[in-house]
Design brief:
By secondary structure, the protein is mostly helical. Helix content is 55%, strand content 7%.
Length: 291
């Protein structure tokens, strides 16, 4: 008989748990503590019979029948839910990768994790599992597996967000340009947004939380108004756009934040070392993430 597990840690701890359970059961049997419920049954029925009136009939026969019924129930419970019966070891516990294979998610096998060396002391050890709990384990895994199978395979959006938060730009020059953009463009735009307090939809409220905000890019008075505070050679000096600003020997101009977003979007996508989870979900990174 096989016990199925879906987690590499559960694979080992299932056996550990039942080895500990067997030790506790041996202590209960050796000390006689397992018989205390039977003593409690006898005392409860004896006290109950003493409190009943004479109209109940022969109290001795009545209480003995009640004790007999309750003892039989207790024996059945102990036999199926208490006494270890079905042998279990690492060879009878199977790691189920069916669903992860269907969704093309690579989950490490127990033998490929650090737990394999931590639990080497379990070699050649086995445990016994009560019939009832073996059945409950199989039933719960079956129901859980069916529920998980009903969930369509998809991208783990939470993991992608964590990966994006921990992603850094490899190019120090590009990283400095992004920092300058935040100071010259995103900071003032956010400040103006808070001052004006426009009515925004839920989608727009989420959009303005990042520097490449489409709202700031397309709304008049934000990225089309603010500009770089330092000259940049990628945008030649424009007398109309840069009127009143210093003209430098390099010929660099002062692009608007809108121009900087459009011009830097693809370069940032190539400068970032994107995690695998993001690369697989967004194959065209160069056309997506930007400022």
């Amino acid at each position: 008989m096989t016990l199925y597990t879906t987690d590499y840690l559960e694979y080992y701890l299932t056996l550990v748990g039942w080895i500990v359970n067997n030790g506790i059961w041996n202590v209960l049997v050796a000390s006689g503590v397992f018989a205390l419920p039977f003593l409690a049954i006898v005392l409860q029925e004896w006290l109950k019979a003493r409190t009943e009136g004479a109209e109940e009939g022969n109290k001795g026969v009545l209480s003995s029948l009640r004790i007999e019924n309750r003892v039989f129930v207790a024996i059945v419970v102990i036999m199926f839910a208490g006494i270890p019966f079905i042998p279990v070891n690492l060879s009878t516990i199977q790691f189920d990768q069916t669903r992860s294979t269907q969704c093309q998610v690579n989950i490490p096998a127990p033998s490929n994790t650090g737990w394999a060396t931590s639990f080497t002391t379990l070699n050649n050890q086995s445990a016994l599992v009560p019939v009832w709990w073996f059945f409950m384990h199989a039933l719960s895994k079956a129901i859980t597996g069916a529920a998980v199978a009903a969930i369509p395979c998809g991208t783990d959006l939470r993991q992608i967000r964590i990966d994006i938060d921990s992603t850094r730009i490899n190019d120090p020059v590009m990283a400095q340009e992004v920092a300058d953009f935040t100071q010259d463009c995103y900071g003032p735009a956010r400040a103006k947004l808070f001052d004006n307090r426009p009515t925004l939809s839920d989608q727009q409220m989420n959009d303005v939380t990042w520097i490449g905000s489409n709202y700031f890019l397309t709304t008049v008075g934000f990225y089309d108004t603010y500009h770089s505070s330092t000259p940049r050679t990628a945008w030649p000096y424009n007398a109309t756009r840069d009127a009143g600003l210093a003209q430098v020997p390099s010929g660099g101009g002062y692009p608007t934040c809108q121009q900087m977003v459009v011009g830097r979007r693809h370069r940032i996508g190539r400068a970032v070392s994107w995690p695998k989870s993001i690369r697989t979900s967004s194959p065209a990174l160069g056309n997506g993430p930007g400022f």
